[in-house]
């Protein structure tokens, strides 16, 4: 993250913050409806979104991203 331009870093942090808020909301909803398959799938998708963002940041930091 340190190697990213400041504007890009802010965008990444904002994206991660949004993803984390979504995870918390989904987990709260699952607390009320633990058997809800749609919520379970949504949580998995959200974790995958987080991994995609982190992977893209890592690839950019190691020069693997396209410019």
Helix/strand layout:
Layout: H1 6-32, H2 37-61
Helix pairs in contact: 1-2
Task: Identify the notable features of this structure and list them briefly.
mainly alpha, single chain, 67 residues
Q: How much helix, percentage-wise, in residues?
A: over 70%
Structural class: mainly alpha
Termini separation comes to: 16 Å
**What is the β-strand count?**
0
Shape: elongated
Mean pLDDT level: 91
Q: Roughly how many Å is the radius of gyration?
A: 15 Å
Quaternary: single chain
Order of helices and strands: HH
Strand content: under 5%
Q: How many helical elements? A: 2
Question: Short description, anyone?
Answer:
With 67 residues, the chain is mostly helical.
Written overview of the protein:
- With 67 residues, this protein is an all-alpha fold.
- It has a domain at 12-55.
- Helices cover 78% and strands 0% of the residues.
- The protein has helices at residues 6-32, 37-61.
- The longest helix has 27 residues, at 6-32.
- The radius of gyration is 15 Å and the shape is elongated.
- 3% of the residues are buried.
């Amino acid at each position: 993250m340190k190697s990213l331009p400041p504007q890009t870093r802010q965008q990444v942090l904002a994206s991660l913050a949004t993803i984390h808020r979504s995870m918390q909301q989904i987990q709260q909803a699952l607390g009320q409806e633990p058997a809800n398959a749609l919520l379970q799938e949504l949580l998995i998708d959200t974790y995958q979104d987080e991994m995609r963002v982190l992977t893209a940041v890592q690839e950019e930091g190691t020069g693997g991203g396209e410019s």
